[in-house]
Here is the input.
Amino acid sequence: MKSERLNPFRLFRDQWAVMSFYERFEQVVALVLSAVIAVIIVVSLIQLISIVFTLLIIEAFNPLDHKVFQSVFGMIMTLLIAMEFKHSIVRLALRRDSIIQVKTVILIALIALARKFVILDPDVSPGKVAALAGATLALGATYWLLRERDDRVTEEAPREPS
Here is the structure.
């Protein structure tokens, strides 16, 4: 029995044939960025596993120690941020979204700020914490407003009769 799924290479070739020069350029850039980020993710994961093994097994550090936790969690969050960037670029490369995804960029920025809060030194100035909190609040409000706009557009869209 033949599979009903489309062949991704055939789909790519068909789409490539109708793309403008700039769309092809955009596609190539997205594919190259995706490959580079994939390499960075693999190297970072190997390094993370190595460091966690060294810290927890060989050196017998306490994972609840503030500095160890900050270091390990910061590396994990950095890896997650890279994976989200890759996911965004792959969606572009598969022609599922346009090049600029504002909500995705805002969510990635929020993840990066959350990472920054986790790895902050205990002696950081209150002004810096307030600035980070303000940036987080502004990004969160922006994301909420964009989501509300998209929800309203979806509700107002004409529905197909059943």
Notes: The chain has a mean pLDDT of 78. The CA atoms of residues 2 and 33 lie 34 Å apart. The radius of gyration is 21 Å. The chain has five helices and no strands.
